[in-house]
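Observation: inputs received (chain + 3-methyl-2-oxobutanoic acid).
Thought: call the complex predictor directly.
Action: predict_structure
Action Input:
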Amino acid sequence: MEQTKGYISNDDKRKVTTHRLLEMKQRGEKISMLTAYDYSMASVIDQAGMDVILVGDSASNVMVGNTTTLPMTVDQMIYHGKSVMNAVKRAMVVIDMPFGSYQGNPVEAVSNAVKIMKETQADCLKLEGGKEILESVQRILSAGIPIMGHLGLMPQSINKYGTYAVRAQDEEEARKLIDDAHLLQEAGCCSIVLEKIPATLAKKVAEELTIPVIGIGAGPHVDGQVLVMHDMLGLNKSFSPRFLRRYANLYDVVSEAVQMYINEVKSSDFPSQEESY
Ligand code: KIV
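Observation:
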């Protein structure tokens, strides 16, 4: 691992596995994770050296334009999962199980999990929830499928919360979150995402657990960070939570390129003789 201009260049071309994530936590190397939903972007992200690529059900918001993640189906997650898997060589690929595919009947949860794994050949699945979904988690794990947990703000439960505000600010919810994190670890989950909770609580969970804890809006004292790709690339100007850092302003880059193309088509500057047969 070579340190240049503040970046860590990751030359390690080996496939990232659940075991390697655990080793990263043990040696204090932060885990990078980003969402992707299609072949082209997954290819760029994988070749840039991302550790984990999440085929998030946030596809519902950023790819489809829905206001929540609830409408996503197993077949839609499989479509996005396959597209990403066609591109990725190194990163560990995690696919979200969509709303309704694991919360009710644990037997159906296993058959949905097996279907997603068979049809995409992904590395791991992510499920939102703790004690309430423990039986589904245990059954899926016993089928040999790795699971990443997801606690704190769980967007599939937005209708229960009624708001996307920071979670687990009171003692009772914080206690439940810690208990749920331990339950998921004891069940055999390979890692846990903590979304939009106080940084002190996330720090406590990361210190207590031996499995990696990856945060989004959970402060710096966790084992890794995840963001939604469209948000961090600045494709969406209207979503600006405090935790979001924009690493590019692709909205303006794309808009300027498209306007230039329109102008050059209208003015007959495009195509030129050289661009013609
Ligand atoms: O669906 C998603 O993109 C996620 C991240 C916000 C962690 O679950």
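Thought: report the result.
Final Answer: Strands lie at 2-4, 7-9, 31-35, 52-55, 92-96, 124-128, 147-152, 191-195, 213-216, 224-227. The two ends are 48 Å apart (CA to CA).
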